[in-house]
Amino acid sequence: MVNSIGQEAFSDCTAMTKLVSHAVTPPVCGSQALDDINKWTCVLYVPKDATAAYQAAYQWKDFFFINDGFTVPGDANGDGVVNVTDIVSVVNIILSDPVAARELLGDDEEDE
Length: 112
Prior knowledge:
Elements: E1 4-5, E2 18-20, E3 28-29, E4 43-47, H1 51-56, E5 65-70, H2 84-96, H3 98-105
Parallel strand pairs: 1-3, 2-4, 4-5
């Protein structure tokens, strides 16, 4: 996971239309790290429930459009990070609720 973005990292990225951050906590930005991105045309995508943190963070708060509608891929327990607790969550679902397990695994067909 990215924890920081260096000085002028996105220099001359004036045509960028989408920026995706998987970090629940906004990465710390070096001097002018995001300055050249057009904040009126570039949509910032952040993890679910992270909008307030980005709206308050230095440089990130300048984005006009912040979309928090996505979840971190592999984050089964919804805590914003992928780690061993996600595996435990999946195993618990499989053991306790076969219907939910089928949905999680994308197998919606009934057993014959």
